[in-house]
Amino acid sequence: MIVEKIVFNVLAVALFILIFAKLIRKNDTTYINVLIAQFVGIAINFIELLFSFKLNIIIRCCIYLLSIVLPIMIFIIEKNGISITESISIISAKIKIALNKNEEARKVLLKLIDKYPNSYYAHKMLAEVYEKENKISTAIEEYVRTVEINLKDYNSYFKIAVLLQKIEKTDEAISMLNDLLKKKPDFYEASDLLGDIYYNENRFKEALSVYLDALQYNSTKYEINYNIGMVYTRLNDFQKAKEYYERAAKINSMLYNGKYNIGQIALILGDIEEAEKYFMECLNGEDVEAGSYYYLAQISLLKGNNDKALNYINIAIELEPEIYKEVEEQLIFQPIKDQIRKSNEKNTRVSTLTKKEKLTQKHLDDTYNLVENLNNVESNVEEKIEDKQIEEEKDERTLE
Questions:
Q1: Which of 90, 190, 230, 395 makes a 20 to 30 Å CA pair with 300?
Q2: pLDDT, tens digit, for every residue of 363-373?
Q3: Residue 243 buriedness (CB in 10 A; 0-12 / 13-18 / 19+)
């Protein structure tokens, strides 16, 4: 027992001296509180050793905590490049942020930065506070400072690009994302955002290049295969689009949109059976939209099954009442038009489709309608040619 106390005192005194040296070297008064705590622990232990009485277990644990554990924890924390003062201030700021006291947290962080201008954690947390307060330009400045201090903080680098995009500085966001992907090509979120930006600007070949590069590092990721399918759709390469939609569907068979787009492509290519197969599969997926029922109604009409078509189109209108206007304009629904139920309710369903997905599906809709119109024109021309040939044959017989 005596040996244990002697060893304790030697270790505690050594740690006390090291903390005191930090106080002198860094001129940081925060260490005084640590020294006081250590001194109390050492003094109690020395008194126990001197007068040979036994302390209870709780007091002994407190002595070890103050004299040994606390200084060792400080050394471990500071080994990661953060001082005890920073640690205390950052913990204080985190607590205030958790309590939604952003203004108080900001004051703590600004005071810390004033003392430690290169405090990585303080700048990063301050950037997050400004972002929450929607002070985007100031948040960007702090994220930039964070990256300057830690060049490998790719998440902050990405944050800058996100915020630049938010304030519509698209060219700067593109530049940041391209630079980030050169440093870390497997950063999926950066590829996804950059591809989205290119896509929404109709720069489809550049978007395709970004997604194909990302595919090298995430070949089994649903979103990348699906995104590539959407880009090929906008490039009117429907066979390639279908290939990547099918890959996406194999990765996650429960997601709706990939299969829905395959169904639309099948209609464009004139394969009604395959279109019906995929639209039926869509009904078993998550977040089913009205579109699948709408196209199944059209397919049923093409197959002469009016009752089934009526059932499908009524469900579609229940899901999305606005479809009724479109149904009125489509000649294909003429045979059942009088039996279709018009919904007076407003559409309260929130679509889960992104802007990119909506643009892709609209492109497929427009392409299908264009193909149908061309087919109708071609059919009318063929009918006129046949009628003309019949008339000519009648004329010839009359002349004979």
A1: 230
A2: 998 898 887 76
A3: middle
